[in-house]
Amino acid sequence: MIAELLWQPFVDYGFMRRALAGCLALSAGAAPLGTILLLRRMSLVGDAMSHAILPGAALGYLLFGLSLPAMTIGGLAAGLIVAMLSGVVTRYTALREDASFAGFYLISLALGVLLISLRGSNVDLLHVLFGSVLALDDPTLYLTATIASLSMLGLALVYRPLLMECLDPGFLRLQGPMGSISHALFMLLLVLNLVGGFHSLGTLMAVALVVLPAASARFWLRGVGLQMALSTAIAMAGSLLGLLLSYHAGIAASAAITLSLGCLYLLSLCLGRLGSVRAQRQRPANDSVSEPMGVSE
Amino acid sequence: MMQSVSGLAAAAVHGIDFELSNLCLGYGGKLALRGVSGQFAAGSMTAIVGPNGGGKSTLLKGLLGQLAPMQGSLRCRYPRAALGYLAQACEVERDFPISVEDFVSMGLWAQTGALGAVSDAQRAQISMALATVGLQGWQPRWIAELSGGQFQRMRFARLWVQNPPVILLDEPFTGVDEPSIDVLLQLLQQWHTRGRTVLAVLHDREMVEAFFPQALALAGTQLAWGASADVLPSLAARAGARRRA
To answer: With contact defined as beta carbons under 8 Å apart, do B239 and B231 qualify?
Structure first.
């Protein structure tokens, strides 16, 4: 009976299998990036980037309708422009990285909504904001899988310099440009994953797969590689749970997935081994090593 | 401007690592340090002293190539990537989930690059470096478990593994416990006797007198440069109130 509840939707319906495949691919690509994002105390930047994609995707939509390549390229371009502008502002003005991102993403978001409302109906706006994970076609799936593969490969290539850059930026800066290169590549991968995610989960919730599993994993394991592996597993479990919830309860899929991830996060926050509510109560209060540094940085 | 006898001898044998001529450095068009002229001989061991805001860290940044000279010139014998540098500890993320061994292995970057594995021989090197600073057997521990002094020892171990010809240290002993300071001073001496060039920004006058043959006093400009015994009194005379025990 239980097994039937778990398998049946995927056995019976192709769209559920596609949704699951898409979500698993997204999890593999996006979740490890979240670990880095948390270590860099940049989780809100992930949020900002996911909103920044909107005007590009909207422009693609405005010019070419609901076209996958147009919206993807548009979103990618918009995300990279915002990342670059924020980088420039951070480097050459007194504004810190989070604030400069906040400035640009709010402008982006408003611009995106404006562009869509110029032509589209509310249904289109909903599609872009909340995705359509239950209606993934072949090209979208291929795109998602490609992005996931590129993302894992890219992350493996810059893993060491990226960690060094997080840990001790000054040290790597002296040894050449590899730190900046790895940071730039990381931002590129982040934007790629958010663009890949917005077709299925929508721009508002694509970032959930990046931030929530990584924040959950942080409460269970210490090492960076382990955290990445666990956050991928959590992202996959949350996606599966969300899809089943959406199917059986008949609720919006991307919201169900995000809420499932949210539940796993809250569970980890309360019960995790490291720095969770439970762990803090069992330890003396002066343990500054494992203070929770979840999404609230 | 003249180096001490031992400095000259070293220079004659090994040459000059840094040559500064009326060097002026600053940030955003504002001068922080002006008119520094002289040479750091290869194998010399120099303390950079002076009041806070006197341009000591600025000079290090200039030597490292992070600040371009606003006036004057600066020549360095080595490519900048070959220099060893220990920044002030506060720039490092102490909570980062990384083991002591992985941290020290960062010093091997020039050999491993982004993708190369750390070989057994290199692991042995790391183990030796940790033993040298009194942290033998700490490889698998998290860096967050280290005390302030131990953390600084670990950073010295990374420098040891990196094995650069020139070592620049920015206030390496601030907030470090006495036993650690003793160990690390010994390590500095060892580097000095092996012909490495050592430059350290320091506040402790007695330490400079005891361990550093050369000193450079800065207070927005160059006060004195030469043997420590000559430089320290001139600094004391100029800014006596600044002296620290």
So the answer is: no
Using the Cβ of B97 and the Cβ atoms of chain A, whether some distance falls under 8 Å is answered with yes
Mean pLDDT over B157-176 rounds to: 93
Q: Which residues of B touch A159 (CB under 8 A)?
A: 114
Q: Is A157 at the interface with chain B, CB within 8 A?
A: yes
Domains in chain B (CATH in brackets) are 1-83+191-239 (3.40.50.300)
Chain A's closest residue to B63, CA to CA, is A174
Nearest to A205 by CA among A74, A50, A71, A31: A50
| Structure ipTM | 0.82
- Residue B165: how many other CB atoms lie within 10 Å: 17
- CB contact A176 to B (< 8 Å): yes
> Do B114 and A170 make contact, defined as CB atoms within 8 angstroms?
no
Cβ A173–B66 below 8 Å, yes or no?
yes
Helices (H), chain A: 2-12, 14-39, 43-52, 54-64, 68-92, 97-119, 122-130, 138-167, 169-174, 178-201, 208-217, 224-249, 253-271, 277-282
- Fill in the amino acid letter for B9: A
A72-124 tens-digit pLDDT: 899 999 989 988 888 788 777 777 777 777 888 888 888 888 887 787 666 77
Rg, C-alpha atoms of chain A: 19
Pairing of β B166-170 and β B197-201:
parallel
Task: Give B96 to chain A, closest Cα distance, Å.
Answer: 6
Kindly state whether A36 is in contact with chain B, defined as any CB-CB distance less than 8 angstroms. Answer: no
CA B172: distance to chain centroid?
Answer: 7
Q: Could you give the domains of chain A? A: 2-278 (1.10.3470.10)
Task: State whether B91 and A158 contact (CB < 8 Å).
Answer: no
